[in-house]
Amino acid sequence: MSRLLLILLLAMALLPAPRSGKDAGALADTLLIRAKPLLLNASNPAQRRIGRLEYLAGWELTSDHPTFGGLSAMTVRPDGNIIALSDSGDLFGFRLPGEQRGMREFIAPLPRRSHEDDWPKWKWDSEALIHDPESGRYWVTFELIHRICRYAPAFARVEACEEPAAMQDWPGTGGAEAAVRLPDGRFLIFAESAYGPRGSTQVLLFDHDPADPGAPPASLGYYPPQGYRITDAVWLAPGMLLTLNRRATIYEGFTAKLAIVDMGELAPGKLLHAQEIATLRPPLLADNFEALAVTREDNRTIIWVASDDNHKFFQRTLLLKFALGETEEE
């Protein structure tokens, strides 16, 4: 592929996609998500390891539904079903390939408050998704309008929304890209590109639910792998986060790095450092990876990664499943 063509394709990929004006909920019965199994490395079918990850399975997801795609976040339920969030305020629910139990597939817009029903589609640039299994509630961050909303169990309704003052000077398309709810109830909200202390990207630490009014958050910093930007983060183990980080270049297209962050004691000015554990780049499966989830199976930590196809014909919606190893393969 010529360098000029690759530049044009990458530019198209990073531009906001046109949003469908059709009612996604009315089309829910037509949704059928197909899953095509994929090798980690088509040029080396035997490859199963990258860094500390063991490749278990992977699929390309497709659908005839007009709003399918654009996955920016997801949660994997204990019954093996996935709820995914698109970057245009739509929810997707589907079973894992081969899973016969659990919920029926669906696609529907996030619930809205009545006075926001007429908002243009571009305002619903939803990027991060948090689920609290104890209460059943969900939290969603919105990048362009720098907002955090809390939803009742099963996304039955909007419970609260807030636009924290500390986020209002974040870049429009570099805002709240990743979010984590800590076991003690605090929240970390990661900016994609807002400046933090000492050349880092900014992270806000809320000691309360950020969808409600409260005291100003503490400002922290995050150092992603060099040249990369965070796209998602999840709680991994006591005192540790797993982050997903993305880069797009004219030479390799999209690449992604998974990294572990040892948080230590969190305090204002704290700098969080990403320690890379695996890289997804060609000839391995690679695309615009934005969604991350962690589960447990047979005493193993399972890592799920999904890509945002930006609703572009030359990108794909990939869903990959890995097991986390203790050490990197020699």
Mind explaining what this structure looks like?
- The chain is about 5% helix and about 45% strand.
- The protein is built from one helix and 22 strands.
- The strands form four sheets. The chain has an eight-stranded mixed β-sheet. Strands 1, 2, 3, 20, 21 and 22 form a six-stranded antiparallel β-sheet that branches. A four-stranded antiparallel β-sheet has the order 4-5-6-7, with no helix packed on it.
- The longest helix is centred in the N-terminal third of the chain and has 12 residues.
- The protein is globular and about 55 Å long.
- The two termini are about 35 Å apart.
- The N terminus is likely disordered.
CATH architecture: 6 Propeller
* Gyration radius over CA: 19 Å
Tally of strands: 22
Secondary structure: helix percent? under 10%
CATH topology: Neuraminidase
Instruction: Please tell me the overall pLDDT.
Output: 88
Shape: globular
Strand content of the residues, in percent? over 45%
* Poorly predicted residue ranges: 1-31
> What is the CATH C level class, in words?
Mainly Beta
Terminus-to-terminus distance: 33 Å
Major sheet details: 8 strands, mixed
Helix tally equals 1
Structural class: mainly beta
Strand order of the largest sheet: 12-13-14-15-19-18-17-16
The overall number of domains is 1
Oligomer state of the chains in this structure:
single chain
Q: What is the H/E string? A: HEEEEEEEEEEEEEEEEEEEEEE
